[in-house]
């Protein structure tokens, strides 16, 4: 009887081993299938951390300050002023750096044991600006900068006394929406509602065009119904927590042959074509003719500001104005009061006008919240201001 019991126990053990074997085989197949599916995605998010061996990981990160090995990825706004420079991966993988979240995103990851070397370098502030070091209110800091930096900044001497970035290439770069934008200036008396209190807010413009787009496909000069307005509101930038609704002035002008100062007055006036409104509340708009006019700098600034915007292609006005881009035809937000035409900056630097149904280049413009701070950077294109 004891022998029979032993034999039964052996049978049970064999059955258990077989069952466990089958279970492990199924798990192995599932893991292999899961890894294969994981690879097909070819794009993975990674968080800050030290990874100095492959182990079971797909990617091996190595961090460098120039040629010096770093034990871990530098923290955002680190005290050593290290900023991301470039990344080099093998197996044809690439890195997309997210500046806002301060994390790398690996793309085209098709093979395990892929090595990516991330290079960081020290920001050279060179006393260009102290705003990036202060962590203070952006509008306040730039106003203070204007008192000592007369090359990049100037008071526009309008009734609102706005501070403008001026010249051919001022240090007014800012990273926004994980894109490169530029600061038009610190605008005063900006409201978020018609009965709200005026504030000092940064007005910024995208560095590059988002494309050649019609101002309005139905040929209307009413911005509140324009198809371009709808396109801009659905841009991802409109969802940023750093911007808010703004009361935009839609006053019009009946002639292109006038100065930046005259345009500023007209933009804030009540002259309009047909039933076009003179204000609009929204998040994303375009630059105004006066923005372009007041952007001029250098020794010829005074001459240009007393000239008509239709003659900005003379006296080196356009070439000393950073808002001008050679051969780019840029829409403004302003309509003409005597017909359904829209002003634009021509490729040769003059201000002109066209029917809304024509296409022109579009550079979105937003007003940042008055509470926004500059937390790092120096305003150069290499080290743009970082916001919070």
Low-confidence stretches: 29-56
Number of strands: 22
Averaged pLDDT:
85
Helical fraction equals 10-25%
Q: Any idea what the radius of gyration is?
A: 29 Å
**Tally of helical segments:** 7
Number of domains: 3
Q: Secondary-structure element order, as H and E?
A: HEEEEEEEHHEEEEEEHEHEHHEEEEEEE
- How far is the first residue's CA from the last residue's CA? 82 Å
Taken as a percent bin, the fraction of beta residues is 25-35%
Helix/strand/pairing class, anyone?
A: alpha+beta
What assembly state would you assign to the polypeptide chains in this entry?
single chain
How are the secondary structure elements laid out?
Elements: H1 2-41, E1 43-45, E2 59-65, E3 68-70, E4 82-89, E5 94-98, E6 103-107, E7 114-122, H2 131-134, H3 138-146, E8 153-155, E9 163-165, E10 173-176, E11 179-190, E12 199-206, E13 212-214, H4 227-233, E14 246-249, H5 260-267, E15 279-282, H6 289-294, H7 301-305, E16 330-335, E17 342-345, E18 351-354, E19 359-361, E20 365-367, E21 374-376, E22 385-387
Parallel strand pairs: 2-7, 10-22
Antiparallel strand pairs: 1-6, 2-3, 4-7, 5-6, 8-9, 9-11, 10-11, 11-12, 12-20, 13-19, 14-15, 16-17, 17-18, 21-22
